[in-house]
Amino acid sequence: MKITDVITHQLSCDVETPFTSSRGWWYKTKGALVVEIVTDEGIIGWGDCYGPSAVAKSVVDTLLKPSVIGRDPFDVEVIWELLYNKVKDYGLTGMTISGISGVDIALWDIIGKATNKPIHKLIGGAFRTDLTAYATGLYFTDMNRLTETAVEEAIGYKEQGFPAVKMKIGLGSMKKDLARIAAVRDAVGPDLLLMVDANHCYNVPQAIAIGREMEKLGIHWFEEPVSPEDLDGYAEVTAALDMQVAGGENEFTKFSFREIIDRRAMDIVQPDVCAAGGITECKKIAALAQAHWIQCVPHAWGTAIGLTATMHFLASLPECPPCLVPQPPMLEYEQTHNPFREELGGDLFSHKKGVVKVPTGPGLGIEVNREILKRYKVA
Ligand code: MG
Fold first, then answer.
1. What pLDDT digit, counting tens, does each position of 298-329 carry?
2. How many angstroms separate the alpha carbon of residue 205 from the centre of ligand 1?
3. Whole-prediction pTM value?
4. 22 Cα: distance to centroid of ligand 1 (angstroms)
5. 123-148 burial, b if ≥16 CB within 10 A, otherwise e?
């Protein structure tokens, strides 16, 4: 089989309710870069790249596509190394790896369709076919009703049956953050798993101070306490706190995760399959983590394509550690309105009490809706 074309679809849509995190920019539109790989046998594979879609498009179109055309999709790891080695001399990690991720996911989709197997069967099989999903939300929307909106939203997820919820923090004041977390904890009760995500808005002493207070509120993990460049800081925060520290959504390839894992700078690593290097690379990152008994719980924020790729990857992750009552890695299920997640691949993600079924069809196991692609395509 030979790859005959690589087509990129840059999508954009308006956001119903603009929102922000501690990063401070308001999301008023959402973008996505969908990669379509065509073969001479008529099999088509789909991939998804994380990050600014125009940049991802340029990476795939100009840097990667010429090296992919004519290759056999089954040489997925060979292609990964070829693409990586082509770009590494320019220090192009980040968005370049995001582009490689989209290509890699599409290749796995093709291999699955060609062999009539779901991707998880090709990467070791499923340790689980039901995934526990946690709701990601509680962004900052109405700056005058920050606590009220967070409480209302959290109660809504609890009523839908989600066993776990992740909320944003980082209001420029630990007092405000803690009051808002305490109000949510009070509203949902002690049994719901509650995680917080600071999107790296704190320095080390602040992160340790707020972490100690959050431990009293039974917070399950503290995500991105400090800046991703500050690995020493991560290691300090992780060592200082009893609670689990998570991070890694802005790390790329096994090489950056090697440092983090080797230094035990995080308790939970969160590679994104659409950013860190696709399924091929994330399997290696997960193996590095397992070898150090560090949990791998992937970050997910993309389209239906990215989310299903994440589901196959999650299905293939062993328990860490294996035990009578394991704590399987959860699926991050982002809850802001996003037609690229909700409509692009059909209704795969309806959950029952926070449980999502891993797709069993060939490849990713989704049928990409070309009408939706057409409706939102901007380039
Ligand atoms: Mg995050």
1. 999 989 999 999 999 999 999 999 999 988 99
2. 20
3. 0.97
4. 11
5. beebbbeebbbbbbbbbbbeeeebbe
